[in-house]
Amino acid sequence: MQSLPGAGGSELPIIDLGGVRRGDRAAMSRTAAAIRSACTGVGFFYVTHHGVPDAVIAEAVAQARAFFALPLERKREVSVNARHRGFNALGDALMYEAKRPDHKEFYSMGLELPEDDPDVVAGEPLRGPNNWPKDRPAFRAALTAYYDAMGACGAELLRCVAVSLGRPEDFFASRYRKRLQRTQIIYYPPQPPELGDDQFGVAPHSDFGCITLLWQDQNGGLEVLERSSRRWIPAQPIPGTLVVNVGDLLERWTNNLYASTPHRVVNRSGRERYSIATFYDPDFKAVIDPRDFGVAPEDIRTTPTTAGAHILGRIEKSFGYRKKLKETA
Ligand SMILES: O=C(O)CCC(=O)C(=O)O
Ligand SMILES: [Fe+2]
């Protein structure tokens, strides 16, 4: 059952992580095969028994709702900084050649590193402490717990991904010692129909990094471009699951074996939609080399890079605030 598309009425595969999390060897090979099939196909799947406690999710969502309900000037007190930490107002993110900026607000956090961390001192981009609202300790606690639990789930998933690519389970661990994991709470106001068909909550895009783990509420609105049919298929909400997808960096790393699939969000529910996206990405200096997965040097399709250079390059292109930061620097 576990790798069958169509399970639970969804058009995307549903993969059960429970066996792997219990250390069951047979489950590992089954799950890795299901992951390989999903990643070479549609590039998206749901995971069940993902191990992130319901209470951790519920508290992060409650804190997200309370944060976005604050007056704009309060949210602007933690406006996004050069390390890509903090609040982005409506209109701050423009995907690719989209006509209009995304109709969403979001708040980003990452790995909490002190100012005296050697990589922070050395000026490694995107590194440093988070940009926490001052008077909201419960917000910080909830998001930190969520970040850590999602990080554990991401590590578990990548053990399966490693096996799915014929590598030892711990292949990714040495590339994730100081991970560039970014977690974003996202708020999509109800989208008035008069905004038109070229207005999106998130315009069509593919994700920058290796894998994304998404919690979404019950309102729906995420759609995935199925390449074979050129059809946008809904990633309908399924309680108790996360939606997982391959990003551009893993596509590049696997020399296009795994598919980083375009997706988009339109919140037509008439209600407020909340989601939490976790981009579970490697160390800044991690080398992205398809030879890791047995690709012959003459077959490699892209130039070598590091995770940090790739992700930073994509962030620079997608967020208008970075241009403003440079102008005022
Ligand atoms: O909110 C969602 O459902 C998806 C968000 C997304 O695709 C992204 O932030 O990259
Ligand atoms: Fe995305």
Automatic annotation (TrEMBL):
Membrane-crossing residue ranges in chain numbering: none
SUPFAM superfamilies named among the record's database cross-references: Clavaminate synthase-like
Pfam families in UniProt: 2OG-FeII_Oxy (PF03171), DIOX_N (PF14226)
This protein's pathway: Alkene biosynthesis; ethylene biosynthesis via 2-oxoglutarate
Domain Fe2OG dioxygenase span(s) in chain numbering: 179-282
Domain of life (superkingdom): Bacteria
InterPro entries named in the record: DIOX_N, IPNS-like_FE2OG_OXY, IPNS-like_sf, Iron_ascorbate_oxido_reductase, Oxoglu/Fe-dep_dioxygenase_dom
Catalytic activity: 2-oxoglutarate + O2 + 2 H(+) = ethene + 3 CO2 + H2O; L-arginine + 2-oxoglutarate + O2 = guanidine + L-glutamate 5-semialdehyde + succinate + CO2
GO term, biological process aspect, one: ethylene biosynthetic process
EC number: 1.13.12.19, 1.14.20.7
Enzyme superclass (EC): oxidoreductase
Keyword Ribonucleoprotein in record: no
A GO term for molecular function: metal ion binding
Family designation: Belongs to the iron/ascorbate-dependent oxidoreductase family.
Protein name: 2-oxoglutarate-dependent ethylene/succinate-forming enzyme
Species this chain originates from: Hypericibacter terrae
